[in-house]
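Appendix B. One record, verbatim.
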Amino acid sequence: MDEGFLGYPRSNGSVGIRNKIMVVSSVVCANTVVRRVAEKIDNAIAITHPYGCGQWAISYSNTFNILAGLASNPNVYGALVIGLGCETLFSNRLADKIKESNKPVDSFNIQDVKGGTIGAIEKGVSICKKFDKEATEIKREFFDFSHITLGLECGGSDSTSGIAANPSLGIVSDKVVNLGGTSILPEMAEWAGAEHLLSKRAINEEVAKEIISLFKGRKFENRSPGNVEGGLSTPEEKSLGNIAKGGKATIQGVIQYAEKPKGKGLWLLVEPGLDVVSMTALAAAGANIIVFTTGRGTPFGSPIAPVIKICGNPKTCDYMANNIDIDASQIITNGKSIEEVSDSLWKKLVDVCNGEKTITEKLGFEEDIGIWRA
């Protein structure tokens, strides 16, 4: 099973490693109804947010495209969009966009349902029960890793991240790419000072110039207070550690926020580098699994894509052991090689693709999303 996994086939040719029903609000006013509906369906997830009302231009398109991207992720079988009825982000328009991924989709507005909140919950549950029945009839089939899109995330980084967890992930990322899959490196601010190294790995001169142009006339302080306290001395040190997650693969191109890769291989994703926003953008870009490196520790996950946590800090692996899937601190404490830890991470990735739950899934961290309101 090392060269493949058992996944859920989708009609558009993508493959899920989870088989979820997504209930999403088109506007903040529908959040409670969305949560109540999802609570009553075992395999449903609630996607709620504070937006959808009075949004225009970039703010509107970011919210619209991220929500549509999440629903089109291969791990989602079908989606129900619930609106209020007087917002700017119409539920039926969002549903129409999601339908482009050939998924079962439905939508309605609370104002159009007799019975208000109670009637809307009952209607939503009825729709999702039908979706859930259909989803349970889909059986896992064998697929190769060309059907995997891996998200490369880091957060709560410290001085151990760049020498232990991140290079271990880089080897795994390269393996996914070598097997015909896709890998996505987000967090643009955390490439600053290392963009010349990324540009040398670009597939052509056009992509190289695009990478360099992202930083012309701009300066970034990409370290949080926690990063500094954790020993990251300069923005460049943070960036050198960050790009190690992308291994050594050729960079195929740069995708913008809420876009999807235009092919296989390694891609760079432009977004602000905030952890929850990055994770959400990765799932919206089609990542069906995410590996999250952390030094100081962070507990949250993703409602859409399983998140594997790997940590290189011995203290964090001790204090937050029940939040960490892979202990990379043994590179520092026990003389393990980066290659040995990457082997453990690869085995975990294969197991998760085959249905094993990550720690974030077991702990129920499946609610947090963040949308970049530019």
